[in-house]
Amino acid sequence: MVVEDESLIAAHIQRQLEACGYMVSALASSSEAALQRAAQIPLDLALMDVRLTGGLDGIETARVLREKFNLPVIYLTGNADDLTLERAKATEPLGFLLKPIEERRLYSTIEIALYKHRMETRLRSIERWFATTLKSIGDAVIVTDTKGVITFMNPIAERLTGWRLGEATGKTVGEVYRTVNAETRTPIPSRVNEALLEGVTVNPISRTLLLSRKGVEALIDAIAAPVRDRSGNITGVVLTFRDISERERVEHALQESEARFRLLVEGVHDYAIFMLDPDGGVTSWNAGAERLLGYRSEEIIGAHFSRFFTPQDVRRGQPARNLELAAAEGRIEDEGWRMRKDGSRFQANVIINTLRDESGGLLGFAYVTRDITRLKQAEKQLKDSREQLRALAAYLQSVREEERTRIAREVHDELGQALTGLKMDLAWLDKKFAEIRNLPVVRPLQQKTREMPEVVDGIISTVRKIATELRPGVLDDLGLEAAIEWQIQDFQKRTGIRCEFTSNLKDIRLCPDRATAVFRIFQETLTNIARHAGATRVNIKLEAGGGKLLLEVQDNGRGVTARDLSGSRSLGLLGMRERAVMLDGEVNIIGRRGKGTTVGLRIPLIRPGDVTSR
Ligand SMILES: Nc1ncnc2c1ncn2[C@@H]1O[C@H](COP(=O)(O)OP(=O)(O)OP(=O)(O)O)[C@@H](O)[C@H]1O
Ligand SMILES: [Mg+2]
C-alpha cells in the first residue's frame, strides 16, 4: 500500500514499484483511508509519507498500522527536519526512503524491510513461547545477566522466594535467593557467580534450604547453568530449583513404613510368610517360615517353592497350578500336605496373594502358611466323639423305648390280669355272701364287697392309661398315622385346643424304631404347644412323597423366638434335632412373632426296614 496525499507522486511511486515486480494493492491519500484499506485487505508493507495532511500524520498512522495490523512501514520523506526524524525513528520503522526515490534504493530497502519484519515476527513468537513455557513449568527459574543481576523470574520462583518479578528485577541474585545448609544452617552462596566465572553448570553439594522473604523454609534442589551466545560468550545464568520437602517427607515415611513392616513380618513366628517371584523362586523369608519349614533364609532364597510340596503333588503339577490359579484369581486359599526340610510332613493352610504393579504386570506372590495338623486332628477327634455320642444316644433311646414297651406290657398284662383276677374274686365273694346273707354280720361286708369292683375298675383304667403313656400300643398295632391320630384326640381332650389333621400316608409304614422316633418328636411338639405357645389352633400335616416323609405341625401361638431356639436349656428341641439326625433327616423350626410356630420334620423314606406297603 502506498500512503501519499499527492496523487501524482503516489502514481509515480506505484509505477516504480510495479516496475520492480511488486503489486500495489492499495493507494491511500489520507490516514483514515490507509487504516480502512489495511482493515479490508491483507497487506505486506506500507510506504508511508511522513507528513500526511489532515487526520493523523504519517508517524501516528504508522504506529496504528503496526500495532493493530502488524504491518511494517517504510517512511517516505522529503527533506525532513530533525525533530520529525527523531519521532519517526521512535516508531521503529523498517526503513526510510528519500523523495524523489531511486529505483535501486527502492528495491533493496523493501527487501531488507520485509526480511527484518519476518525475523522480528519469528523472534517475538519464540519469546512468547519461551515466556509461556517458563511460566508453566513446575520448576522455579531465575535468570540473571552477566553481573548476577536478576532479569527474569517465573511464578514458581516468585512463590518460593516470596519476591515478585517486578520487585526482584534489578536486584542481585543473592538478595532474593537466600539459601543455607539444611544441617549446619550456614549460608550457601547461590553459585551463580561460579557459573558465570567458570562457565560450567553447578549443582549445590549439600542439602539446601531456601529462605523466603517471609522466612518460610523449603528444602530445594538447584542447578545454575550459564547462558551463552553464538560465539560462546556468557550472557547470563539460569538458576533452576524445585521444592523437594514433600518428596523427602514421602520418601522418608515410605522408608519408615517399609522398615516397620519388615520388622513385623520378620517377627511373626506362628505363620510362615515369604515372597515368591513370578516363577515361584523364594525372594524373602521370615522367622515363622524358618520355624515351620526348617530352612534358614540363606539356604532357601532363590530356591523354587515346589520343594515344600510332597513328591506326589509335584508330579501332579500342583505348585505350578497354584501359582497359575493365584495369578488368575488374585488370591487363593489351599489346604494340603507340605514337607519340611527334614522330610517330615504337616498339614498346611496356605494363602497366596498375587502382587501386581500399577499397570497390572505380575511382580510375584505373597505366601502365608501355617501348620494345621493339630487343628485337623482335633477336628477329627471332635467329629469322631460327636458320632460316638450320637450312637450312644441312639442306643439309649432304643433301650429306653424297649424298657418302656416292656414295662407297659408288664403293667398292662400282669397288673391288668391280676386286677381282673381280683375282680373275679370279689364277684365270687359277693356270691358267697349272698348265700349267708341272713347272718347279721354279713350285710356290711357284702356292702363293702359290692363297692370294691368299682375301685378296681378305676385302678384298671389308670393302669391302662399309664401303659399307653409309656408306649401307645396303637403305634405297634396300627402304625404311625393311627398313633398320631390317637395322640391328637388325647391332646384335644386334655387341652381344648382345636386340631386339624391331614395325611396321605395310607399304606406306608415305617420300621418300628423310626416310627417311634417320629412319634416322640411329634409328642414333644404337642407338649411344647400346650406349655409355651398359647395357641388356639393346630394344623398337622403328614405327607409322604418323592422318597421323603414330611411331618409339619403349625400352631397359631406366640411364635418361638431365635433366642428360644439357640438356648442351651432347650433340651426338648435338642432331643428333636438329635432324633432327626438319627433318622438321617432334619427338623426346621420357624417362629413368627404373634403368628405362630411351624415345626417341620423331613426324613428319607426308603430305608432298609421301612415297609412301604402293609
Ligand atoms: N410352639 C411353641 N410356641 C412358642 N414357644 C415355643 C414353642 N416351642 C418351644 N418354644 C419355646 O422354646 C423353648 C425351648 O423348648 P424346649 O422344648 O427345648 O424346652 P422346654 O419345653 O422349655 O423344656 P423341655 O426340655 O422340658 O422340653 C421353650 O422354653 C419355649 O420358650
Ligand atoms: Mg419342650
Rounded to an integer, what's the Rg over CA atoms?
57 Å
Sheet with the most strands, sense and barrel status:
7 strands, antiparallel
- Classify the oligomer: single chain
**Total individual domains:** 5
**Percentage of residues assigned to helices:** 40-55%
Shape verdict:
elongated
As a percent range, the share of strand residues is 15-25%
- Bound small molecules, deduplicated: adenosine-5'-triphosphate, magnesium ion
CATH names the topology of the largest domain as Rossmann fold
Task: Supply the CATH architecture of the largest domain.
Answer: 3-Layer(aba) Sandwich
* SS elements, strand count: 22
Q: What's the N-to-C terminus distance? A: 127 Å
Strand order of the largest sheet: 7-6-12-11-10-8-9
Number of continuous helical runs: 21
By secondary-structure content and strand pairing, the structural class works out as alpha+beta
**Which stretches of 5+ consecutive residues score pLDDT under 50?**
none
CATH H-level homologous superfamily name of the largest domain:
Response regulator
